Queue: 2 jobs
Job 1
Amino acid sequence: MTTTTSPTKPGPADVQAQLAAFGAFEKDGARRFPAWVTELRRTGIARFAALGFPTPRLEDWKYTNVAPISQLPFKPAVKPSLVALTATDVARFAFAGLGGSRLVFVNGHFTPKLSTISKLSRGVKLGSLAAAMDSDSDLVKQHLGRYASANDQAFRALNVAFFADGALIYVPKGVVVEEPVHLLFIGSADEDGTAAHPRNLIVAEAGSQIKVIESYVSVGSAAGFTNAVTEIAVGEGANVEHCKFQNERPDAFHIATIQSSLARDSRFTSHSISVGAQIARHDINTVMTGEGVECVLNGLYVASDSQLVDHHMIVDHAQPRCASHEFFHGILGGASRGVFNGKIFVRPGAQQTDAKQTNRNLLLTDDATVDTKPQLEIFADDVKCTHGATVGRLDEDAIFYLRSRGIAHNAARRMLTQAFASNILARIGIEPVRKQLDEFLQSRLGAEIRAVEG
Amino acid sequence: MSDSDKTIEQFVQSDYKYGFTTDVETDTAPPGLSEDIIRLISRKKNEPEFMLEWRLKAYRHWLTMEEPKWSNVHYPPIDYQSIVYYAAPKSRKPGPKSLADVDPAILEMYRKLGISLQEQERLAGVAVDAIMDSVSVGTTLKGQLAEKGIIFCSFTEAVHEHPELIRKWLGSVVPYTDNYFAALNAAVFSDGSFCYIPKGVRCPVELSTYFRINAINTGQFERTLIVAEEGAYVNYLEGCTAPMRDENQLHAAVVELVALDNAQIKYSTVQNWYPGDKDGKGGIYNFVTKRGKCAGVNSKISWTQVETGSAITWKYPSCILLGDNSIGEFYSVALTNNCQQADTGTKMIHIGKNTRSTIVSKGISAGRGNNSYRGLVKVSKGATNARNFSQCDSLLIGDKCGAHTFPYIEVHNKTATVEHEASTSKVGEDQIFYLNQRGLSTQDAVSMIVNGFSKEVFKQLPMEFAVEAQKLLGVSLEGSVG
């Protein structure tokens, strides 16, 4: 079995390397997973073999060249890391004042000794996905891979093939989880090309409520590759807030998908704050499967030096009477590149859709670039859809106003840039997170402005 | 019947079909495309050597290209070998003898558009001697233009009389390597218009007027080239509001505009080709490459288009803003009804300093029509203080149509200010009710709302065309509501 179904058709060297790694993984690490997972993995690697790494010739990757990733000497982190991280190492990545559970994953593997799980309401499940595949096999089987399609995107296919662990959060019907859950992903690569493929599954049943923070940081001495997929199923009338903070080391690679499926009358709020990694690509896709959904996708990206940050959004209004609002701000310094692609899809019959999308970008330097593509595809007539995109510099009038009040030029620029970021952060409903991110960005943007002003 | 039998049958039939026509009409080339056909076209047109060379280079390049598939329009594959690439004008079928012989549906359309009786005759292709009058008007105009040094003639004429100008400017904006259809056009184009405005001359008439008086037997692969020298100004209108019946399904035209220092070109298009029947059968494929180059400082190119016809409209009139302080504008109304599809928009490439561009695009979808705006605004690294404003609005009438927006914004300069706005709305029932209550029929009410929606673009058109374009929208939307 282990050899027969592995795709053997020749492909480019980078694809071959993945296939070889998959063979090794099947022999070694994959043994501990149930048989249905093995099947799933094989479909994933077969799909990846067919797709290959994306190239800029593909419309969805037009502005993001992933060649540096495909050329990495790949080593999937199949086994939990042996790096000895202590609780104090981890503490600096926590959000001050944030209570509740914190699940820590090192190179994609759940690390119980660094994690704290507070008392949970009846029926709430919180823990490692790998463990749950045995203990809650039915639940995981029912949801895993159902929302995020591995068919159309090579990295998602790769994640299906190689995922080792991640978080499972399950909130039963009508349960309100008061304290936010923090999922902390630590990359601790000591060799180039260590790849982690975390896989998270969040299921909020009808009428439940939960807030989840997903943060990605690095501690190791080498550039790693994170290829994460988070699936979120929001039940009828449920309310989920998801906040992602990506702050990996500046030479790391981060590719991630957050796929949500929103049932009737549910509410979903997503925040994506991306400041780290050399190449960061976020696919944030959401499908409204029932009527009356309200969805907010909120995001901020800050890049400098040669960083590239890319957000690709698909908001699929499959049902009538849903509202979606997207707000994305980008601040780009150095020779960085910002990419934004927002696509609102209104299906035939999805009447009374209210969809709004804004993408605003601030260029701080002459070498920074922005490529933005806000898209609308509308197949219903009784809809209100708008989108707007701007690229520009700070308003000279606003700077003049501040200067006329005795504020120095660079201070005025800093204030306006910080305000531009705060617009987005203000929507984060988890106060300790909002506060800490705000402070973090204040200092980061202050440094960016100082770098420009000299 | 086995597959091979079928193939043979088809082969026999197709052979039969063309066998006779080639014999009867000796001035028509056999269908298909090859170097021989291109040589034939060039020879028939008595072209100088450099033209033939250019055509052949284009053809050879075309062979290496693949038909683009990225657009949001769908059509069955085109068989390029079944197209007749050369037909001498005289082989056209004789027109109807008088208006009484013309399809009453077309006459009804003329009446609704308010076209004069005489012009109706000409548009319907009634024998030319019946409209000698307008030809003489045309001649008068030609004299007026020649006096100012303006060259305005057919492309073929220009190749013979002004080869140096053709050689200098042909392909300077849309090279034959540009895209699949532009390469095809370069290889086989039959004719088109050439317009040259010398230094400092302001063209005294809107060339639109002239165009309407002249015959509009536009070829399948036409090519237009307009050159405005330093400080020149020209206002050019292509097409006509009247419906045009045309046997050619694929139209792949190329339009090139060049504006030198301080020159201005205003190019307006009203296109109302046969859109196919209610079920989407037939209709013209309008795949056009239009591009203007603001080569000089302070130059300006403005595109205005009203696209209501054709089964498929696929074009992006663009501006390359090369000169400092140059300006590019694009105003468009595209209407798709029944099964029509439109994928249109513009490209604004900012290269010079202080360049500005404005995009106003109004898409109207009704019936099962699909309307896409696709546009690129690119600010290059050296384009300091570039400014762009884009607005794309879509209006949906009925729940089976689609409106799509694909704007690409690429900014490589921090001093740029680029704004893009898009909205989608429908003709509200309360709006219609309000107008009904004021005594307007639902049809008139829709027409009024749609015209209000498109007003920003219509005001860019020469007056008489704006009036006709308004009526045209009303006529094209007939039957879409109620």
Job 2
Amino acid sequence: MSILTEFPSIDTETLRSLKKSIDSGFLNFSRNYGDNIESFFDPIRFLLIESEQFLINTPWPIIMAIIAIIAWLGSKNIKIVLSVIIILILIGYFDMWENTMKTISITFVAAFLAIVIGIPIGILMAKSNLFQRIMNPVLDVMQTMPSFVYLIPVVMLLGIGKIPGLIAVVVYSIPPMIRLTNLGIRLVNKAVIEAADSYGASNTQKLIYIQIPLALPTIMAGINQTIMLALSMVVIASMIGVTGLGQPVLLAIQNQYFTLGIFNGFAIVGIAIVFDRISQAYGKRIQESHGTVDGK
Amino acid sequence: MVNKPYIRLRNVSKIFGENPDSVIELVKNDIDKNELQNNHHHVIGLQNINIDIPKNKIQVFMGLSGSGKSTLIRHLNQLIRPTTGEIIVNNINVTELNKKDLINFRRENFAMVFQKFALLPHRTVLSNTYFGLQIRGVKSPELENTAKYWIDKVGLDGFENYHPNQLSGGMQQRVGIARALANDAPILLMDEPFSALDPLIRIEMQDMLITLQKELKKTIIFITHDLDEALKLGDNIAILRDGKIIQSGTGQDIILNPHDSYISNFTAQVNRGKVIECEKVMKNLSKDAFSKVTIAKETKLEEAVRVMISNNVNEVDVLNSKKKYIGTVYLNDVMASIINPIDEP
């Protein structure tokens, strides 16, 4: 009984023509609309290039000072500021400053886009159970689908370069932003919402005065996760032309340059720690000022 | 009281379950709560509530947990919508308001105080207090000034910049009350506002509310499970059980004429001397001249005893509001009324 040993699959000819028709359909689509879609992304390309130029062209002591100030404003913790400075000095000393700036640039732009797109989607999910049911499987796909798969159509449309890389990074890193915004708003104490209702608060007022401020610690955790995931994508993004710390790692894999790989790998870890400590310390400070730490 | 009813509930019922409309008729015809639950799988929240609430008085709804009192108070500002019935507030049928009108109606008419305070944890005492005003679009500096006034009024001056979690329960509820009063709404809804507080703080807060009410004369709807609290605060008291009002009247009415054994079980525990007024126990001797020691007819029995003992007399004359003699109370009668009747069912 061959039906038991071999799964009854669709016959090869049909499968081939199915794949062929989808592929050619998409190819036509990208030929016809590729240019339009590319120009749609122009503002983002501009943002990417400008931020990269700024980080690379500004003298390194100024950049270091800016990052140290951000670290101080975020954490108000001198230990964190000092470790950030040490990490940056080590990165610069081992000649990875420029690549690090490029990676920080794309991470920054990707995180910015993820926040700008993710928070409104998260809010909509919190407001509508139907939308939540629709979005959940979409987010699952975004997190588990191998990036290369959705990179194929993106590369077909936009070619190799920064924009497809950025799209890959945003798609991969946006789900925690959306999920945690949704969760944060849904977890806001029902009694407080009822109080707002009793005083005649409109939906917008509830969102601005209560739900977003009270969800902020959770939203900050989402931002933190988004930045971490964006960083972890830089190596994959380097395969489609994103410059930065990912490229030397790629080179190291291809040529078995162990030291090159490990240096750049540690540089990625280093800036991950910088981003993580600053955003976590900031999140914790918001939580404290909200009086939500002790569960009240 | 010749006050025209300010809030009027007519045949209000609330049914929880999958298809409340299917059992409306049964509920209207006074079906028993348990029968509805077991045979029709719906739960009664409120059943055929009819009550008129006068303006500028404290109306207390008293009942144990599950009696529907919190559900009832939420019907007034439509946080919960009734399954059937009419709720008239200030000549407007609130059940017919659409969403936008309802929001405006709440802003103009209601302020609410909650059992668990429901303060905004991320805001200071000051900005918690002006929350209702902010919702209504009041701008700075009126916002802060009004809030400041009410914070002082509830005795929290100096705490403006504290966060709720830095305050004790009693102080948090003072913020809750300041927030409600700052709103300057004519109707104040209080859902077991003092139940979560220590007994001493509770009494302090009750006294504060009485003092404030003398000045403000708001229409206050007050929910409690504590009969002593109900008697102390309520101009009128309605007792709820299983979603129905089983007795409604002044505290004195309820103490003297409990409707059934359920209520007399409650009233047996009450200090009657603090509730019953002299008018109820006086004897009219139809004399013209009255003795030196006199009291007003609203004087509570306990106070009458105090007056008689401090003046070393056994009787005291009672005057009406026009200072006319209307009767005499005797120490014996007063004491007999203060102790609880033993063989009353």
